[in-house]
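call fold(seq) -> tokens
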Amino acid sequence: MEISEVDVQTAESTPSPILIGQLADWLMEQALRDGNLKEIISGCCERLQSAGVGLYRCFLGFSMLHPLYRAVGFTWVRGEGLTVETFPHVAEGLPDDFKQSPFHYMLEHDVPCLRRHLDADSGKEFAVLGEIHEAGGTDYVAFAVGFHHTDENQGMLGSWTSDRPTGFSEGELRALIRIRDRLGVACKMAIRSKLAQNILVTYLGADAGSRVLSGQIKRGDGETIQAAIWYADLRNSTRMADTMSRQDFIDTLNSYFETIGAAVTAERGEILSFVGDAMLAIFPADANDGGMEKACERAYAAALDARRRLAGSTHCARIWVCRRWTA
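ret:
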């Protein structure tokens, strides 16, 4: 019996229902366990491919509650793995590249799913489709999953891409649609877990935040530590606040905090709080890493690094390091 090329392609394009079912169960397990977002996305893509889906590329984007970034995107490419990209806030409206994307079109026209077979002219409609076609993509399916019925900005935007000559089969599309919402649930739970961790780390510090997450929330719960205290404030901030516009002053503070904060975290310090134009941090002593002497060295190194980073800007900081402190 002769088997035509079309028959072979059809056989290859029929995903295993059993393996797709196992993937759906795995995604629910990840949601219950607050799985790692990167591992969820990579694991889902690898399992789809193993189940027989001709997946070449996957993109997932999520809005963020972050002072510096409005969104984060994850791109998985077969044979290359996962890459992560953050998208900073813009002063007004939306970035031009997003306005020209399939996702913006979908949100503007309330379209939950968009499919395009890719060819040399695909870039005329959306520039990104031309780029994906040049990389080898043949079939593109975009989707939007909302996370909260009262906030249209919270959710997941994603796309699947095939590089097979005939694109996705109907069986593959059914499998992708079945997995889509389960993937959204798993990602939503991972994002919520990470958000809670980020908030606690931001307002309590890394060590205190991790202890709260582990259940130390009763009044009186605490731990005695040794650490070097690190305190810095912005010189001439009162004059700047009086002479600059509100937004310019806020932008200056954000830039200043980002600069000195990077110096602290680079030396494994923990930022405890921002007070006006000042920042309070600690460098906990580690008995296995030189104790208090090493903690003070790290704090001093962070102070020097902060001044070096500020040397290329118009900001000037006063920095104090306390060598001995017990709390």
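The chain is about 45% helix and 20% strand.
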